[in-house]
Amino acid sequence: MSRAQPRVSGGALSGRRLRTPASGTRPATAIVRSAIFDRPDIGAVVDGAKVVDFYAGAGYLGIEALSRGAESVDFVERNGSACAVIRRNIDELGLSNRARVHRLPVERCFSRIPLDPDLIFIDPPYRVDALAVIEAFVARASLPEGSIAVWRRQTSTSGGVAPPPVRIGDLVRIDQRRYGDGAIDTYRAEAPT
């Protein structure tokens, strides 16, 4: 039995098909993407946003943001085949002029991406603790007040990393939701203290 091909779940490109890497990524399902983007706090930020998609994998979160009106997305992914799929998806969807794909480890991307994004996706492989990378990015960034960071992770009870802190620099957690063996933590940037 074959799996249904993933599709963009909302916005101007809703229903358009997405290609999937053969292996090595854990693409966000349509249910997870809808759970993120249908929230009012995300919806209020995404239109016209500069977005950074860390550990982009197949790029579905960033593509979803572009479909829903983001101005631009910087995809950061180290896996070459995943980057090729992101590029192919953005080309086929006509998004090349609003997207950049960076094939390198997240820890080495800070000089190549905007340091003032309105929306940040952090979606590492489940067993990777991204806290040190997020802390390093936030220390260098000039996050606009009200910008949002969404961290998708496996819960510690199902073999994942420890729960993240309530505060990471200027980012303060405003929501935490569980979805099966995963969780989505949402942070909002406060004015620098």
Which features characterize this protein?
single chain; 8-stranded mixed sheet; 5 helices; 193 residues; alpha/beta; globular; Rossmann fold
Describe the protein in words.
24% of the residues lie in helices and 24% in strands. It has 193 residues and is α/β, with parallel strands linked by helices. It has one domain: Rossmann fold, CATH 3.40.50.150. It has an eight-stranded mixed beta sheet. The longest helix has 13 residues, at 80-92. The radius of gyration is 15 Å and the shape is globular. The termini are far apart. The relative contact order is 0.15.
Give the SSE layout.
Layout: H1 30-37, H2 40-46, E1 50-54, H3 60-67, E2 72-77, H4 80-92, E3 99-103, E4 119-122, H5 131-140, E5 148-154, E6 167-168, E7 171-179, E8 182-189
Catalogue the unreliable spans. none
CATH architecture title: 3-Layer(aba) Sandwich
User: What structural class do you assign from the helix and strand content?
Assistant: alpha/beta
Q: CATH first level: which class?
A: Alpha Beta
| Helix and strand element order | HHEHEHEEHEEEE
Radius of gyration: 15 Å
| Main sheet properties | 8 strands, mixed
Averaged pLDDT = 91
Reported by name, the CATH topology is Rossmann fold
Percent strand equals 15-25%
Indicate the percent of residues in helices: 10-25%
Number of strands: 8
Give a nutshell description of this structure:
By secondary structure, this protein is α/β, with parallel strands linked by helices.
